[in-house]
Predict the structure.
Amino acid sequence: MPTASPLIIALDYSSLNAALCMADRLDPLRCRVKVGKELFTRSGPEVLDALHGRGFEVFLDLKFHDIPNTVAGAVQAAAEQGVWMVNVHAGGGRRMMEAARQRLERHGLSTRLIAVTVLTSMEATDLAEVGIAASPAEQVERLAMLARDSGMDGVVCSAQEAARLQGLCGDSFLKVTPGIRPAFAEADDQQRVMSPAAAIAAGSTYLVVGRPVTQAQDPMAALEAIESELAAKV
Ligand SMILES: O=c1ccn([C@@H]2O[C@H](COP(=O)(O)O)[C@@H](O)[C@H]2O)c(=O)[nH]1
């Protein structure tokens, strides 16, 4: 039975063992988990099998960004390993996203497919340096519309943009939001942040939480504090 929780815990660890130690403290009825570039590069698909075996739905966050044929193949490979959600970079463009969508459809694969808009670690000055004059909010909006029109199930954005996208793209368009920072946590390298309760109130569908839990002195206490904040909000 899939969890009703919006929480996705980012297992950003440098070894399979460390990631599974944390997974063994988590409850698949209370959260999903995310496997990103560091863990997957170190452990390979074994980590997916191990997490699936423990009952977790897994978001494979590899942010594919390449020519359409290559991305379509990578998305197919991820979906065939049973992941719940996989992502690409919206900056790869319409043809790339459409190819990924078509590949999943052709093979009857129901993995959720979403696109990264503007990384939550970026602010306006970072965009300017890569030649984008728009504000993060404007660029997120542009890429979210493109992602929706290219057949994506939703986007990765910051919670600061979620309310606007809710109005533009509707309830069923997923807003997956990293950069979640409870009051007790540091921002770290994140620029566009929001608290868990505010993110849900703004229309985030899923909250991606990494270091505020995984690097906390007491990770379970940190997770419970976030759950309490969300429960108080409902
Ligand atoms: O725009 C993005 C896209 C992905 N991420 C990923 O989410 C987690 C956030 O971890 P924290 O420790 O809570 O900052 C991490 O795995 C990123 O790779 C993101 O932060 N922003």
